[in-house]
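User: ok so my PI wants both of these folded by tonight, can you help

Assistant: No problem, let's get them done. Here's the first:
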Amino acid sequence: MPNRPEMAVGLFAVWKLGGVVVPANPRFTGFELAHLLRDSEASLLVHDPALAPQVSEALGAEGIPAAAAVPAPELLEEHGREPVLPDDLSSADLAELIYTSGTTGAPKGAAHTHDSVYATASMFAYEMSIRPGDRVLNVMPMTFSAVLNLTVLGATYAGATNVIGNYTPQLMAQLIQQERCTLAFGAPVAYLMMLKLPNLHEYDFSSVKSWTYGGAPMSREQVLAMRERLGPNLYCLYGLTEAGPNGTFLDPADHEKHAGSVGRRATVNTEIRIVDDEGRDVAPGEVGEVLLRTTSAMTGYWRNEKATRETIVDGWIRTGDLARRDEEGFIYIVDRRKDMVIVGGINVYPREVEEALATHPGVEECAVFGIPHPEWGETIVAAYVPRGGAETPAEELRSHCAARLAEYKIPRIFEPVPALPRNSNGKVLKHELRKRWL
């Protein structure tokens, strides 16, 4: 279901009965929903009545267990009955299956216990200093782990108020003003779209103590633009579903100098390392993979031992993110390991190229990726959204990059596109862009 109070009520009701919650994105098709039902072996599907067509399609798919479906309003009519609670509940029992966004392949269910969910919520409340008088804005989908476990449960843990709505740029601004929200969370694209509102200056955001963002890369220029419009109280959160989500954060004091970084320390009850392919810690300036060890880690992927062994090694979660530390210890995410492009045997990190290209005034946003090349292994393509709809000549973009990047990092193809394809979590789907050349 989309964001609505019944989702929070249903969440705690299932837990009180000893059940496991499997959040399902309301934008899923019946086919996608069927995968969750089939993989999780769900026994009950609670849904918004408006989504009945997708629910019917999913329940009719092949291999679906005997799952019942009930519209949320009907379920709440039964609230007068006192439930019979199991007497053997443990904090180590499974609480959630949070399915990863699945930018490649089918989504996998990250299995979290009550202990790990509690660790995530209490961490966020502690790090963000949430108090009972606070009002936390939840307009990003509550089916995402960052919203559910960080903001919704973090606010609940602290006794604060949850303000619930379904994102549009206008509604985000309106709810902050109307409800006097003290903390807002959003994916970068949610803030960037809100900043484009022509009447943004008319809204009163004086109640906000913390603007928090995370879930996708954000360039230094974008962060500074956000800081200029919304003020200095910005927090960057880095983590992943498999870790709670948990990881690191960049606090407001460090944004002016280190915008674009994800901070230099792990959050409470979390450790972070950056290692090479042999598992050795890399020196400052060197690129390595981010590893996380935390009390909020998943126990593994549901019914997928192979993927679990590949991801959790000696208690550390392999994030698949490549990063480097600077001399002061601040961490900069370079790229996803799977997105790295190898040109003539040399590693090229698309995010570095994207940040250079994004500084051109004719580029609204961009995505860089590799495609096969018969001699060089891969060649670099930059798909970009023209600012104002006016395309920029490829040679001009190439010259712009040449002033900022080594020659081998410069894209050979510049492709204007009307918009970058994204999944429901706001992450760019580069494999969709890559299809044209494959």
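One down. Here's the second:
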Amino acid sequence: MNLKQLKYFLVVAEERQITSAAKKLFIAQPPLSYQLKQLEKEIGAQLFIRNAHGMELTEEGKAFQKYAEKIVDLSLTATSQIRQIKTGELGKIRIGVISSCGGVVPNKQFKKLIEYYPNVSFEIHEANTFGIIEQLQDGIIDLGIVRTPFNLEGLNFKDFHQEPMVAVTNNNDFDRGKIEHLSQLKGKPIILYRRFQEIFNRSFRHQGIRPFYAVTCDDARTAIHWADEGLGIALVPQSIAQTYAKSSIVSIKHAHWVTHLNIVWRKDRQVTPLMEKIIEMF
């Protein structure tokens, strides 16, 4: 039994005549009759009664018709879905995201992707940059959204967003609403988002400043919350400050305090069509 025989059977059952069924299928009558006989032989039952009016389904034929329709429909569905998966129009993508990308991801492109391909679904995993890379290496996720700096070994990446660091404070610490020189932070209680400790220390050391880290944490949202409560000045990426901060956001004029968001994936991992669509989207 094969799909071609099932399709032939269904057309004959619909047309109730070998002649018209053969025309509809664009084949000659003898091959069609032969395929039907082979199908009946394999099933072990007569499917049609031949009479003066044409072809009538037997009781066995009526029962078999229901199954044949389901099998053919399922075959068409499977073929369609496989094609969609192959072209990246269907499937699930596992993405690891860091908390500090909330002001940037998801973006308008994500919304457009879902509009064009409504059968695509996302499984989101949250961690810091190091956790995301570890999940990527372990095969838990397909793609990761991380912040620089990070170890690029074994990874492909695409830089898609850069932004400055800003200060979040609920006090009027800075007259002009901006920090034009890092010396303005000297002696101030700083809430350190540990992710950028090395960058901050390098800059402070270069300018001969010993910073006072009043609070140290591993999440930009935590740093912002503590700053909102008046426990210090949080130094965080601009986008997450704009998303979560209730206090004043103060710009910082310092060229080296810039962070980049990258989308990353394993070099040894085959990029699926759906992964490729999302990478291109960035």
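The first helix runs from residue 3 to 15. The first strand starts at residue 48 and ends at 51. Good luck tonight!
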